[in-house]
Amino acid sequence: MKMLSSRLEPVKPSASAWVSQAAKDAIARGEDVIDLGLGEPDFDTPDHIKHAAHAAAMAGKTKYPPTNGTLEMRKAVVGKLQRENDLEYGVDEIIVSNGAKQVLFNAMMATLEEGDEVLLCAPYFGQYKDIVLILGGTPVTIECPAKDGFRLLPENLSKAITPRTKWIMLNLPSNPAGAVYSDEDLRALGAVLRDHPDILILSDEIYEHILFDGRTFRSFAAINPELKDRTLTVNGVSKAYAMTGWRIGYGAGPKVLIAGMTKVQSQICSGACSIAQAAAAAALNGPQDDVRRFCAAFEARRDLVVQRVAGIEGLTLDPPGGAFYGLIGCSGLIGAKTPDGQTIETDADVTAYLLRTAGIAAVPGSAYDLSPFFRISTAASEAVLDDALDRIAAAVSQLKRGAD
Q: 165, 132, 167, 100: which is closest to 12 by C-alpha?
């Protein structure tokens, strides 16, 4: 008896979640492992946000919430987008979901027909591809190499568009490379998309508050207002407010799209947790001091990792402009032999070697459709990162390369 749908066959579990779980399992066995696989801030959720959740629970806000989100939360999103992003939306153009990933799933399920193409900018968040696959779409990868700052160039976007193109997915700044786009970059992409009125744009802006070197964030739809009526802006509270476990994401877009996404959500899980929505509203409406403090810490950690990787022969790291990852180039290790005589042929071999030899859990670049790289999360303390880079340096030094 065939129990599972064939649609699941090409879909892989989240690479970062799998690596993180493998690290947790190793730690449970008593092994000395540093988990740099999962993109999760090590900070605690700010107290005023937790107090808002407690107050909501004590006030009896424990009933089924509206499918598209509580009015309080949707108003908070409207205010946030107006205040921080120069974007005007009504509450009926907002959906609140169980994390930003569900917003992505809702959007694809509400719009994709079998074989519709979705353009992905490699390296990209791996679940973009899997969500498209499980819903019958066709992911189309556009390679965005390090020489281009891991950014999508307008000429490459133009070449990738076909009559079947339904969506383009952007991530600003990006996971895993921390790539950032200037206003001019976004206008150039918008100019290409203006000539293709049937293409929808998904702008995943979950890392908008984690920008470095004095950069300021601008939303795609604000830079390209003429494309706002076919742009879905996706965001959430997990990264900026250290609220990963609260599971609140949101989307803002055309009323007809949001209505379709709400219909999808109504059949999957109904509304997101009412208590978590109260907390998220407090995060968006409340003081932003912790957001700035977190960002400053992430920037210091970025600087530390860039400096340390520069001192490890065979590894490279272009300084990320945002987010909290290091996408480390490891082409210099391909072909090397481990102390036990194994040949490193892929970036997956590199991460397996680092886990086995150094106790470092990292994600291979193949999970993001760009090799040879591996991703580490820099959302850990400087002491942990220093220890991790010491271990990586020691492990790499044991490899035999070329004339070694």
A: 132
Q: What is the pLDDT of residue 39?
A: 87
Check residue 403 and give its pLDDT.
Answer: 58
Nearest C-alpha neighbor of 177 from the set 301, 317, 59, 314: 317
Say if pTM beats, i.e. exceeds, 0.90. Answer: yes
Give the model confidence (pLDDT) of 263-313 as tens digits: 999 999 999 999 999 999 999 999 999 999 999 999 999 999 999 999 999
Please give the Cα distance from 76 to 99 (Å, whole number): 16
Is 215 in a helix, a strand, or coil?
coil
Instruction: Kindly tell me the sign of the dihedral angle through the C-alpha atoms of 125, 127, 131, 134.
Output: positive
Give the burial string for 176-197 (b: 16+ CB within 10 Å, else e).
bbbbbbeeebbebbbebbeeee
Which uninterrupted H or E stretch holds 169? Answer: strand 165-171
What DSSP string describes 68-81? T--HHHHHHHHHHH
In 3-state terms, what secondary structure has residue 31?
Answer: coil
Q: For all residues of the chain together, what is the average pLDDT?
A: 95
Q: Return all residues near 273 (Cβ < 8 A) that are at least 6 apart.
A: 65, 98, 246, 247, 248
**Rounded CA gap, 366 and 392, in Å?**
19
Which residues, 6 or more positions from 325, have their beta carbon under 8 angstroms from its beta carbon? 39, 175, 176, 177, 178, 375, 376, 377, 378
What pLDDT, in 10s, does the model give residues 151-204?
Answer: 999 999 999 999 999 999 999 999 999 999 999 999 999 999 999 999 999 999
305-356: pLDDT as tens digits: 999 999 999 999 999 999 999 999 999 999 999 999 999 999 999 999 999 9
End-to-end CA distance of the chain: 54
Residue with tokens 């079947």: 164
Residue 218 to residue 41: CA distance in whole angstroms: 23
Residue 372, CB-side half-sphere exposure with 13 Å CA sphere: 17
According to DSSP H, which parts of 95-205 are helical? 100-111, 126-134, 154-160, 183-194
The answer for residues whose C-beta is within 8 angstroms of residue 104's C-beta and 6 or more apart is: 127, 128, 131, 202, 204, 234
